[in-house]
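worker-03 picked up job from queue 'complexes'. Input manifest follows; two sequence lines, order preserved.
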Amino acid sequence: MALQTPPTRAPRELSTALYCYGVTSADAAASQPNAGLAGVSVEPVCFRKLAALTSAAPPGKVRARRADLLRHFDVLAAAFERGTVVPLRFGIVFDDEASLVRDFLEPRHDELAGMLRKLRDRVELRVTAHYREQAILAEIVRESPRVARLREQTQGGGSPPLLMELGELVSAELQARTARDGRAILQRLGALAEAYDLSEEQIEHQLLRASFLVEPTRLKAFDEAMEELAAAQAGRIDFSYVGPLPPHSFVSLEERR
Amino acid sequence: MAIATQGTASNYLQRAPSPSGLADVVELILDKGLVIDAYIRISVIGIELITIDARIVIASVDTYLRFAEAVNRLDLTQTEAAGLAELRGDNGGGGGGKAKGMMEGAKDKASDAKKGLKERVKGD
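worker-03 finished. Artifact:
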């Protein structure tokens, strides 16, 4: 059998590796043609009540390309339209379907099913709030006599020690306001949410970056609260408000071994 | 999911159905989401994280001088008080412990945080 007609198609090296986007319940799972990483189709792999949303993994390591990052997000968003979904972090690959079931769906079945139950109908709403620099600095000048005085003294260029004192004072005032206003917003919104996830990174002029897990019946109240906050703080604090998103920030597994 | 997705009728703020920038998407899918036991491959390459428009809060001479300069440049006649007061006073006491600890931790965390900060991803 030395001579054989060559195959019409060059034999591709078939990878069995599966990229996994998230987990949904088997009855809500659906294929998503061409929606996956590199444009391949997303197919559910079912095990009992669960379905992992997967696609053929690209060869080698997963590159965090812009298009693929968005695809990961969009696949989950589309699944979320159909039902509850547990989002996975970007970049999780299983060797093959058997290992996906053996290492993930089977040992974690009850935990995942419980998570899907708990997150049923819940949505993630993401809120960030930033000060407008001009407005908040002006407020500090108006409300702190010491800042106002130092500002007067350093108009047209003060001595370095005076400038340092002014700057340090402004910085302290700003931090105090950030903490106070951030806390107030968090309290207001947190009261309408089942849970929240607060980003602790301190970014300049940012009072709050948080996700809220909200029941659908509370969505309207949350919208109204956001509207009130934005109206009351117009010109002083800018908000961004995004959702409903799949519950990216509210999923975790118990650590094992 | 049968949820009304129209935003509020507000002129001030509209709820956006999905993040507007790649940075927000990245934060959700690289920082959040389920992580599985270590033995399952998490294989990502090619992420170049750059911190651009987000300055980590850090107490430094530079920051102080920058604020001093900004305050000196202010034109106070142009910045009338917007509706403040709303957030103040009534909610002053007893915030969540988590939020309370934020500022204290900020300085120590600042250098670490810079590394973890994902505000921009250079993608293709």
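worker-03 released lock.
Chain A has seven helices and ten strands.
Helices of chain A lie at 66-82, 97-105, 109-118, 133-143, 145-154, 160-190, 219-232.
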